[in-house]
Amino acid sequence: MNKVLFAHLALAAVQIIYAASYTIAKIAMPQYIQPFGFILIRVFTGCVLFWLAHLIFIREKIKRQDIGYLMICGIFGAGVNQLTFFKGLSLTTPIDASLIVTTCPIMVLPIAAVLIGERITWRRLVGILLGAAGAVFLILYGKNVVDNPGENRALGNIYLFLNASFYATYLVLVKSLLKKYHPLTIVKWVFTFGLILVFPFGIQELMVVEWATFTQGVWWSVFYILFFVTFIAFLFNILALRVVSPAAASAYIYSQPFLATIIAMLAGKDMISVPQVLACLLIFAGLYLVSSRQENVA
What we know:
By secondary structure, this protein is mainly α. The protein contains 13 helices and no strands.
């Protein structure tokens, strides 16, 4: 398969996994497990899985001079990024969360320009603005039959905006490492350093979890987050970053509100509407402008 095609298929799969996770994660959180405790389990599981996969398939060593850089990527990619996302999701609604994460590609542009000197073309800028307009249009005007504002919607959205900023920074920083190491090598160390950061935040919440109260649905929710969102999505994303630019990769986040709507409709939780169709057209027009031609090549 063409490597560019594979990268975009992988990014699309990642967004489907993430779009479903907004609702699935809240089955278990915060009623059965608090967000920082959930994150500790997630990062620990990801760390174990990626170490095992790396031991079996790669066995690549890193250079001493890159340890500090990998540590920074771990802080942004599996540390503060994860803590702020799950904390924010526990306080706000899945719909709000899917909107806030669409700010990530907007943050990638100035961060990439400052850190790696990436060129901001008019074509890419127009594409990102179109995608952002589609996402905002979908959230503001799309039909939402479920109204569950959570405990502190405004604070949750602030956490999610911080998450988008941290993840955008990670996307930019990790790009140079992908030219030197296999993705499994990088993600193994990203999760290792991330685990060190999240441990003191999550251990207390994890110790008070009452596992005996978990229903079958809660266990499936935990499994989905640990395996699909943590392992599969993270691996697909970093594989795609070997081919596409950080801006093009992060632009796929624009599809999450649309995908979340489709998933809700298939589950009988929502109905498709004209505003949602219009938003879809804007989103994919933006994706086309950002990722087509030379915009998607590293």
